[in-house]
Amino acid sequence: MEALYLTIPMAMCIAAFFLYVFITAFRKGQFEDIESPKYRMFFEEEEYPQSKSKPNQTDGPTSKS
Q1: Quick one: where's region Disordered (predicted)?
Q2: What confidence tens digit (pLDDT) does each residue in 11-62 have?
Q3: What is the pLDDT at residue 45?
Q4: Whole-angstrom distance, CA of residue 3 vs CA of residue 5
Q5: Where does the pLDDT of residue 1 fall: very low under 50, low under 70, confident under 90, or very high at 90 and above?
Q6: What are the residues whose beta carbons fall under 8 Å from the beta carbon of 25, sequence distance 6 or more?
Q7: Is the pTM above the cut of 0.90?
Q8: What is 1-65 written as a DSSP string?
């Protein structure tokens, strides 16, 4: 019975923390669009031409042995 005096307030604090996190995420618009991300993988990404402003610029990381 004595353990309940400690665990119930701790559980309430944890629940309040997660409620606070949920409310802040909701206010920031985290749950605005829940439909389009699951369809995003079906569309091909468009490749844009890269501007070569530096003459020694490489396209990606290279490994040297």
Answers
A1: 45-65
A2: 999 999 999 999 999 999 888 887 887 888 888 777 767 766 655 555 556 6
A3: 72
A4: 5
A5: confident
A6: 31
A7: no
A8: -TTHHHHHHHHHHHHHHHHHHHHHHHHTTTTS--SGGGTGGGSPPPPPPPP--STT--SS-----
Pull the structure tokens for residue 33: 């669009």
Q: Residue 23, CB half-sphere, CA atoms under 13 Å: how many?
A: 6
Residue 63 Cα to chain centre, angstroms = 30
| Calpha distance 46→49 (Å, rounded) | 10
Q: Is the dihedral of CA 6, 11, 17, 20 positive or negative?
A: negative
Report yes or no: 62 and 53 within 8 Å, Cβ to Cβ: no
